[in-house]
Write a structure and sequence with these properties.
Blueprint: E1 2-5, H1 18-25, E2 39-40, E3 56-57, E4 82-88, E5 90-92, E6 94-97, E7 113-118, E8 121-123, E9 132-136, E10 141-145, E11 151-153, E12 168-172, E13 179-183, E14 186-188, E15 206-219, H2 229-238, E16 243-249, H3 261-265, E17 278-291, E18 325-328, E19 332-335, E20 363-366, E21 368-372, E22 378-379, E23 382-384
Parallel strand pairs: 2-3, 4-7, 5-8, 6-9, 7-10, 8-11, 9-12, 10-13, 11-14, 12-20, 13-21, 14-22, 20-23
Antiparallel strand pairs: 1-4, 15-17, 16-17, 18-19
Length: 385
Amino acid sequence: MALNTTQTKYFSSGEISFTQIKNTFGGNANNIKASDYLRNVGSNVDWDSSKTTPRVPDATENAAVSTDDDWTTGSLRNTIRQYNVIQSGNNEELSFTSADTITWNGNLNRNILKNFSITGTVYANETDKYALKMSGNLYNLEIDVESNNGKVYGEGGAAGGFNGGGALYVNNTYTNRYVELRVYGAVWSGGGGGIAGNPGNDGPTLSCSLTSNFNVANNFNNGTTLSAAKPGQSCSSARSGANWVSANQNAVRERCRGSGTRLRAGIYPNGPYQCSSYWTIKCQETNSFNAAGGNRGNPGNGGPGRGYSTQSSSIGGNPGNSGNCNSCTGGGTSCGNPGNGGNSGGEWGQPSQPSGGNAGIAVHKKNTRIEYYTVNTIKGPIIDL
């Protein structure tokens, strides 16, 4: 990174003639007067006007030049007409006030013409800060963002719907003269961060059933013919709603073992007779219950806004996850819907669409006039303070 001053100093050596003074600072060629070359500390000086007098601007470097009658040609030694600062390389979050004595040598609030030329990249990697910020009494200041390499970049908004960061902030509290801004390169604010999509819906509740078997013991008292209802009564008595499947004798009486009517007619379950008071009844029951459907899919995350830290990386949102499926006997299968994808982040100077974070401010200004720009050189809102 570099901030270089490039002042031309006049009358560094040799004699100083009025002709040289007139050729350097201008003035009436036919009537050269010493009073025309006092130091001008006026509060509304236009150095482009040939009628402006005195002709020597107020600057820290010109402090030796008198503002009244105590004037000599020697006081013009090493004076300057313009104070220039050239930025190159990369600079993070530059900030200047009119009291600056390091870069601007106390000249920002003086009437000397000043030019700040941006030939590299000035950037912010935090959304709550501007890449370049200048504030205070900015008298006769020009800012040029040069073509090709001159860039002022804000930071992109974080995923989740956060706003992008600002690029250029100029708060000129001096009301008599505008700061002049020309943007041939790029003054781009950060895009807004995208928001996450919506989750899917859970699958519908399953109506399930579960069939199981169990045995009960049943004693028949003094009966010779098995009643078909009694095994069922044994099952339903044991568990409400259960049905009987089969009945088996545990022992057989003697009188059922010979020949005769009962043998010919058959012993239950192959005939109507029961030859034992002790039976094992096989029962079956079916239980109904509800089960949860498949879980819904999670939404996809939104993408970050385009900005200094995301110049070449993706600003797209992530797709949503697919839902899960559950199934059960009698209820079939229930699947949750997939979640929606997240929104993409906004491009330079743009909000996330269709919803999400807003773009940062490209130029936030007061008493500043934009002399040149296009839709491609300034991206993002231009807002007056």
